[in-house]
Design brief:
This protein is α+β, with helices and mostly antiparallel strands. The chain contains 16 helices and 57 strands. Strands 1, 13, 14, 15, 16, 17, 18 and 30 form an eight-stranded mixed beta sheet that branches. Strands 2, 3, 4, 5, 7, 10 and 12 form a seven-stranded antiparallel beta sheet that branches. Strand 13, helix 2 and strand 14 (210-213) form a beta-alpha-beta unit.
Length: 949
């Protein structure tokens, strides 16, 4: 097994006592391991270059509190104390009075509270050992402290105490033993920025045993409180709008394009998502990812048999120095600097590709290593009294009235490092950003003509690490380019969409003219017309079989990267990687094989999205009904989920809640209905005792005049004719249309096999007539009867003696067809009965006793009873508990005297929420049952009762 690292000397121990240290009588103390950091911060960005993390006094010009620790001195003696440090601003020298550069970040070492003689932080720009002083120490516990003198980013990597007056500290301590993580993970994600966090969470919730290694103490990367870059891009975009759930869960509630106070970035919220265990998830599969903070991955071990596979990564704890080997079947490079990719020997890209490489119009003619820079953002605060700022002109950049900027915050435009290596020169790039900020503020506060305006303004925050915008990109099986975006090339393996334009940053030309090394940026924005999905092939490395890519190192050109790089987009792509990792686990596949063999499975998972975390009392606001009996469990009324125990059923019945849907164990008997649903254009079969027996058949509007014409056969009116549905076959089996049936409303059969069809001619309200067309048994139009003085007919019922009951706009009429077969003749109106109120009386049927009629009073929303002479006997309306009685349509009387009425509530599918769909009245007008299932059924205009208690 081959171990690969990018730099040497990375395995520094935290504390090496005399018996196990570099040499007898010496003691090495790694400063990042101090017990109390005080105001100093642990800086990890340059760990790979200098061999370890270090402490930095980041005080914005105000000295920070001491960092302190205790060590055990093994023997009494006079000790020489050394400090590993550097003069960071000496990279940009401005000689002082003695000809030597003035050091910005100076500090001293305290031993048992007493400062040693030397002032540290000066000297060379390179890291070096500086002699701090001598001190007599007794064997036992000794207190060490770093005491900041300036607040300007003094730094110390390690202290070395020795009794040998002539000894020099070794550059690197012995490497500590490597400890093995006992678990072999399914997936190890390196990098806890937004993309890496989303990857780990998505993978874990999809059943992947995942470890996330983060070198900082918080998650979120550029969106953490350490960097404070706002989230760009949109989530829930096509073609997979379910992607973005994890982003939504961990993103701050509020954000903006400028830096804000720390609380707005909600570091704790991001971390909390990693600690939700199965106990709290309520059915979400998988386990929470394992999260390890302050773990700096510096090396990989390649598989001995398959040399293009990573077997393990080595991670160094940035506080303790302990090194751990983590094994996994899959890895994800979410480092932003393509650390794993480069360690594994993958081809990477850096800077701007020449135009000829990808034929991109926005690429330069000649390629170079220019990248978008690092932003060191900052904020100020106004105080009630003056806040001085030290005069740092001795080491600041030479800023004057012609080069200075009046500003009280630094956002994206505060950008440096365009022509440097974002991975290897990170410390220098960040330091130049700090130098520019301090230098300009020195001019604003101490020398500018408007300095009095800023006398009470002081720094409140400056990023200690800076936010990288671009670094190394790994070559995948596909390299996304500007041409893909601008030509809207659609790939079969499309995933989450880019929702940001091509946003290319470059040195601000004005700033570049004033300074040899620029520290401000400008941007070129270029839209490409529509959101663009990133191909899955950009999300894994071409040259390493088990390496996914997430974040800034995905496979794309410099120009395309300028659009994909924003954090919400990268977070969604991280979700895609997590879902793909779950397929790799289940199928024993590589990331590449997800594309070549399991792409349909990935598409299905992207369509479904990552299972979300629940919210407290986050019950679905659908139309389910259920009871929670605490320790006795749940009882699901609708949708039913198995039987309800007898004790729960008894408690439910005793409680007396009116359920929207029935449960087979709680009903007073079985009800089976056929429903004509106009608004959703379906014919439904409803079965209260067997939900599996419920089904629907697609139909056509208006689906009026539902009539049973045979065993399982139902006819209903459609445009220009009628259709016949076969419930046994679950389909339409007959359709008849005729030009004369322009606005047909009902159909009834004749004894000779023919049929009648009532028609409302266009403009019928003006001439007040209803047409009844007669067809032969072979469906040929024979004649037309005209009934004048009636209009807007709804339904037609044929009585036993051959007369017709026509329901129309204002009531109903008993009518008789003309004799003979004249092509068109007037029919006779024997009796005309006006409805008491409302309009559009829908249906009239004779009662079973043969003594009168039942009528559905349309927009009167009443169930009307007339005697044989047409006198109104009763009018019933259901109290619907706040819902509406809109339009009483088709009805049916049962042998027990109960009446079922369809309550039509509107033409739209969602009109079903306005009122109950079906109402059952007993013979005294009391509502004894109702159907209220708007998620299943729309606006019902017709019913047929197959079974009732």
């Amino acid at each position: 097994m081959k171990t690969v690292s990018l730099a040497s000397g990375l395995l520094a121990a935290t504390v090496l006592a005399a018996c196990g240290g570099v040499q007898p009588g010496s003691l090495r103390v790694e400063c990042e391991g101090f017990r109390s950091l005080g105001g100093w911060t642990v800086e990890t960005q340059s760990t790979r270059q200098i061999g370890s993390s270090y402490l930095m006094a980041h005080g914005y010009g105000v000295p920070v509190a001491d960092a302190e620790t205790e060590v055990e001195v093994p023997a009494t003696g006079r000790y020489v104390v050394w400090a590993r440090t550097r003069n960071w601003n000496a990279v940009w020298p401005r000689p002082g009075a003695d000809g030597r550069p003035v050091a910005a970040g100076r500090f001293t070492v305290l031993v048992n509270g007493v400062p040693l003689a030397a002032e540290l932080g000066g000297g060379d720009a390179a890291w070096h050992w500086a002699r701090a002083g001598e001190v007599d120490l007794a064997a036992g516990s000794v207190r060490l402290a770093l005491h900041d003198l300036t607040g300007f980013n003094g730094r110390c990597d390690a202290l070395w105490l020795t009794v040998d007056q002539s000894a020099r500290p070794p550059e690197h301590p012995p490497a500590p033993a490597v400890k093995d993580d006992s678990k072999v993970y399914d997936l190890v994600v390196v990098g806890g920025g937004f993309a890496g966090s989303c990857t780990a969470l998505a993978a874990a919730r999809s059943g992947v045993d995942t470890l996330l290694l983060q070198d900082r103490g918080v998650l979120g990367g550029c969106n953490s409180s350490e960097v404070r870059v706002g989230l760009g891009g949109r989530i829930h975009a096509q073609p997979y709008p379910a992607l973005g759930r994890v982003v939504e869960e961990i993103q701050p509630i509020f954000g903006y394009g400028i830096p804000l106070p720390a609380s707005y970035y909600e570091d704790a919220r991001k971390e909390a998502a990693f600690h939700a265990r199965d106990l709290y998830w309520g059915g979400v599969p998988g386990v929470s990812p394992t999260l390890r903070f302050q773990q700096y991955v510096f090396a990989v071990e390649m598989d001995g048999a398959e040399t293009n596979r990573i077997a393990a990564v080595l991670a160094r704890d940035t506080r303790t120095g302990a090194v751990t080997r983590h094994r996994a079947r899959l890895f994800c490079d979410a480092t932003g600097d393509a650390v794993l990719s480069r360690l594994a020997g993958c081809e990477v890209m850096y800077g701007r590709e020449a135009r000829s490489r990808f034929n991109e119009i926005s690429a330069p003619e000649t390629g170079d290593r220019q990248v978008m820079g690092m932003s060191v953002q900052w904020l100020t605060q106004k105080h009630p009294s003056p806040r001085p700022f030290p005069d740092i002109s001795a080491w600041a950049l030479p800023i004057d009235d012609s080069t200075g900027y009046y500003q009280t915050r630094g956002s994206w435009e505060q950008e440096t490092g365009f022509l440097r290596d974002m991975a290897d020169d990170a410390e220098r790039i960040r330091d130049y950003g700090l130098l520019a900020i301090f230098s300009n503020w020195n001019w604003v506060k101490n020398r500018s003509p408007r300095r009095s305006e800023y006398s009470c303004v002081a720094f409140s925050w400056i990023s200690p690490i800076g936010g990288k915008r671009e670094s190394y990109r790994t070559v995948g099986d596909y390299v996304l380019t500007q041409n893909d975006l601008e030509n809207q090339v659609r790939h079969p393996d499309a995933t989450a969409a880019i929702t940001w334009d091509v946003d290319l940053h470059f040195p601000d030309p004005e700033n570049l003219r004033k300074f040899a090394e620029p520290f401000r940026s400008a941007a070129y924005h270029r839209g490409f017309g529509a959101d663009y999905p990133v191909p899955y092939r950009c999300l894994y490395a071409r040259d390493c079989a088990n390496l996914f890519l997430a974040g800034r190192d995905i496979s794309c050109s410099h120009v395309a990267f300028a659009a994909v790089r924003v954090q919400r987009t990268l977070g969604m792509l991280g979700e895609v990687v997590g879902l793909a990792a779950s397929i790799c686990k289940e199928k024993g596949a590589t990331p590449r094989e997800v594309h070549s063999r399991h792409l349909d499975a990935l598409k299905a998972r992207m369509a479904a999205g990552v299972p979300p975390l629940p919210t407290f009392h986050g019950y679905s606001n659908g139309l389910g009904e259920k009871y929670d009996f605490n320790r006795r469990g749940w009882a699901h009324i609708y949708p039913p989920k198995g039987p309800i125990s007898p004790d729960k059923a008894a408690d439910i019945k005793a409680k007396g809640f009116v359920h929207r849907n029935e449960h087979p164990q709680l009903q007073d008997g079985r009800r089976r209905l056929v429903l004509a649903d106009e608004s959703r254009e379906k014919l439904h079969v409803y079965d209260s005792a067997d939900p599996k027996a419920c089904f629907s058949i697609d139909a056509e509007k208006p689906i009026w005049n539902l009539t049973r014409i045979g065993d399982g056969l139902y006819r209903f009116v459609c445009k220009n004719g009628f259709m016949v549905a076969d419930l046994k076959a679950h389909r339409i089996v007959d359709t008849f249309r005729h030009d004369s049936l322009d606005i047909v409303t009902s159909v009834c059969d004749l004894p000779d096999g023919g049929f009648l069809a009532s028609v409302n001619p266009r403009g019928s309200k003006k001439d007040h007539r209803i047409l009844v067309r007669r067809f032969s048994k072979d469906r040929v139009l024979v004649s037309t009867a005209v009934f004048r003085g009636l209009w807007y007919g709804r339904t037609m019922t044929r009585l036993a003696n051959g007369d017709l009951v026509l329901a129309y706009e204002k009531g109903f009429a008993i009518c008789r067809l003309p004799e003979g077969d004249a092509p068109e003749a007037d029919g006779a109106i024997l009796r005309n009965v006006e409805m008491p109120k409302g309009r559009n009386l829908f249906e009239v049927i004779p009662d079973r006793a043969g003594k009168g009629y039942w009528a559905g009073a349309g927009y009167g929303a009443q169930l009307l009873r007339f005697d044989g002479d047409g006198r109104l006997v009763s009018a019933w309306t259901a109290d619907q508990g706040g819902k509406k009685n809109v339009f009483y349509a088709q009805l049916q009387e049962q042998p027990n005297g109960h009446i079922y009425v369809a309550n039509w509530t509107g033409h739209g599918p969602d009109d079903s929420f306005k009122g109950w769909q079906v109402i059952e009245f007993d013979k005294d007008g009391k509502v004894v049952w109702r159907l209220d299932s708007p998620d299943r059924y729309g606006s019902v205009s017709g019913i047929d009762v197959l079974e009732t208690p």
